[in-house]
């Protein structure tokens, strides 16, 4: 059947209209917001950030829209060939993980899996089930040995990459200690300790000393020089996780307060054990790799308040107050 060119004109006109409208509508469509807001820091030899994003998208599959998530991932060398990966989810549900290993590629894949599971674990499971199982590759052909040819050396055993994810983290810290609760005047000393952290819980043990603080009987030259030693145990729960980690802490501290007479007729020395309990807060700021800055402030209540006196003189040299403050500021190294 013959169709005239005029009969074909409406179809051609429609095609021109569609061709003109489609680019305009494509340009007018707003770009979809990125579901994963990823900040990636890694040394040379690690995958780029786009590869990590692609792995997250592959694990989630082509499913429905997902809520946006803010993630920070930092990889740093931890000595030799060992690497440490710190993963911190900022929003919508804050959390963090630490991965250690010697293969940055496998560690980045493990981090991508953690992020994908945080976004939509059901989608990750569905996508994994939908993917066909990989077929084993046929064994390579082996050439027959040639007479007189040297035998090749056996291949060295290849150790699989280790990227073990651990929730448990340890740390050692060293701090300047400021004490007002159990010495006559505000004293400055040193404290050192360490602890473990799992999720939002943290526990620390420490030892410290305030080497010198003095007091005297009111209106007299006679008095004493004091030195404070202590052992401390803290239990903390994380209350806030943003650019700073803020913990609420309870502590128990055993003190030994040493007093030596000053400007007295007969020299004396006395040691009083004092147990105290306290509540306070600890603030932690992470920097690159395992280094942190930590500060703590506690209200301390001594359960025993001994009275230091000089024999044959009226008045007390010192008696601890019913409550006081204790603070520290220093550096911590996570491992």
Automatic annotation (TrEMBL):
Instruction: Write out the entry's keywords from A to Z.
Output: Signal
Signal sequence span is: 1-28
Instruction: Classify the source by domain of life.
Output: Bacteria
* Chain residue ranges for the region called Disordered: 130-161
Write down what this protein is called.
Secreted protein
Q: Which organism is it from?
A: Sorangium cellulosum (Polyangium cellulosum)
